[in-house]
């Protein structure tokens, strides 16, 4: 049984990746980085309780200024859009999460860190990756940097994203649906923090399309 640290937001992708690895010795690492959608954190708490996963909730919201003021996810003055805009990219968010996760994983002798970032996040938009810090190359570089920055006697901590496994969003949700549809439909994709998921932002639209493409009835309750 591998000792696994899951960077889990409570969103569809990271929860699916966690469910796929549920039979390992899983610890959930959840970040409050100043995001609008704080409701996603309750999903992580629910899954931790249901599966008796250990959970670490790291509040780094005091550092939210490092992500700037131009992204939709952390700045309430930036409108949430219904299609992909570069303002949904939180600069090096996965890099920040991984730096902290890797330090902890090396300290506590984990075997690997898992993330839900998948191949659709690596799609090219105007000759650039939609989410550059979701690519296999980025994760390989972070893994190598950590290896270079730790003692040779320490066991290497692997960084395993869905994108490194060549998995797409529909691959994740198909597998997760077979494991636990209850948890799957509790996930929070919306960039906003309303009573229900808005159903209109880029992330909600991706969620809708993924279930449709996977041939799974979407039981998510949306505002519209």
Write the layout of secondary structure elements.
Blueprint: E1 3-7, H1 12-20, E2 25-32, H2 40-51, E3 54-59, H3 93-107, E4 112-115, E5 124-125, E6 128-129, H4 136-148, E7 158-161, H5 169-179, H6 181-184, H7 202-214
Parallel strand pairs: 1-2, 1-4, 2-3, 4-7
Antiparallel strand pairs: 5-6
Helix pairs in contact: 1-5, 5-7
Describe the structure.
The structure is a single chain. Helix 2 links the parallel strand 2 and strand 3. The model has no long low-confidence stretch (mean pLDDT 96). The chain is globular, with a radius of gyration of 17 Å. The strands form 2 sheets. It has a 5-stranded parallel beta sheet with strand order 3-2-1-4-7, sandwiched between helices. It has a two-stranded antiparallel sheet with strand order 5-6. Helix 1 (12-20) packs across helix 5 and helix 5 (169-179) packs across helix 7 (202-214). The protein is α/β, with parallel strands linked by helices and 224 residues long. Helix content is 34%, strand content 14%. The protein is built from 7 helices and 7 strands, in the order βαβαβαβββαβααα.
């Amino acid at each position: 049984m591998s000792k696994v640290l899951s960077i889990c937001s409570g969103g569809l992708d990271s929860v699916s990746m966690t469910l796929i690895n549920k039979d390992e010795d899983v610890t959930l690492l959840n970040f409050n980085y100043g995001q609008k959608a704080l409701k996603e954190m309750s999903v992580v708490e629910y899954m931790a309780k249901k599966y008796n996963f250990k959970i670490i909730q790291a509040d780094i919201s005091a550092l939210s200024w490092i992500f700037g003021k131009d992204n939709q996810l952390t700045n309430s003055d930036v409108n949430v859009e219904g299609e992909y805009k570069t303002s949904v990219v939180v600069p090096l968010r996965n890099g920040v999460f991984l730096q902290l996760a890797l330090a902890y994983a090396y300290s506590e002798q984990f075997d690997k860190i898992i993330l839900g970032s998948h191949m659709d996040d690596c799609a090219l938009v105007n000759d650039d990756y939609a989410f550059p810090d979701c690519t296999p190359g980025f994760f390989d570089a972070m893994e190598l940097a950590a290896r270079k920055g730790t003692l040779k006697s320490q066991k290497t901590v692997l960084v395993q994203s869905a994108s490194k496994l060549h998995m797409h969003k529909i691959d994740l949700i198909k597998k997760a649906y077979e494991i636990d549809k209850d948890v799957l439909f509790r996930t929070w994709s919306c960039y906003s923090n309303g009573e229900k998921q808005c159903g209109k932002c880029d992330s909600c639209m991706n969620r809708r399309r993924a279930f449709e493409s996977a041939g799974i009835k979407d039981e998510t309750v949306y505002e519209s």
